[in-house]
Specification:
Layout lengths: L2 H13 L21 H12 L11 H10 L3 H9 L4 H11 L6 H13 L5 H14 L9 H12 L5
Helix pairs in contact: 7-8
Length: 160
């Protein structure tokens, strides 16, 4: 392996968060107006570097973004593996999204995702089980994003 190849490999590992030591970004963090995307990028980079811990790339929450944009998760992962930063990935997403949305549509979609709650008995029951496992004391957990943030917090030693 050449020295430049070693440097590139080190840079890729350095850019990947170690999700065994800290959580990915909150699902509320936006990139290009999209919620979920920065968190998904953290999980993708960590997966490539084998530092994802219990976090899964292209999980059901990520699928909301993938379905909305029409982005293929394997192709996005290839772009991440090339070592591209967030701004370059956003450019790639904008160029490759099968469902091009206007900025106001993205804003509306993101606002909906932030406010999304379990919609039926089955998902409500699942949500309540996860909530109880993270903290029985937290009574202000209503949305999926609330639950993810709480779970990330307590997983890494925070008090609920």
């Amino acid at each position: 392996m050449s020295k430049s190849q070693q440097t590139t490999d080190v840079e890729k590992r350095m850019a990947a968060p170690n999700l065994r030591q800290r959580p990915p970004r909150s699902p509320r963090v936006r990139l290009g107006g999209y919620v979920i995307l920065p968190r998904m990028l953290d999980k993708g980079r960590a997966t490539i570097a084998k530092q994802n811990g219990e976090y899964n790339y292209a999980c059901p929450i990520d699928e909301h973004f993938l379905n909305y944009t029409g982005i293929n998760p394997d192709q996005l992962k290839e772009e991440l593996a090339a070592g591209k930063g967030d701004s370059k990935i956003l450019e790639w997403v904008q160029a490759n999204a099968r469902h091009n949305q206007t900025p106001w549509e993205i804003t509306q979609w993101s606002a909906y995702q932030e406010a999304r709650v379990p919609s039926d008995y089955e998902t409500r029951e699942y949500f309540n089980e996860l909530h109880k496992a993270a903290s029985e004391q937290s009574e202000d957990i209503a949305t999926w994003f609330d639950l993810l943030d709480l779970d990330d917090h307590v997983t890494f030693g925070g008090k609920a």
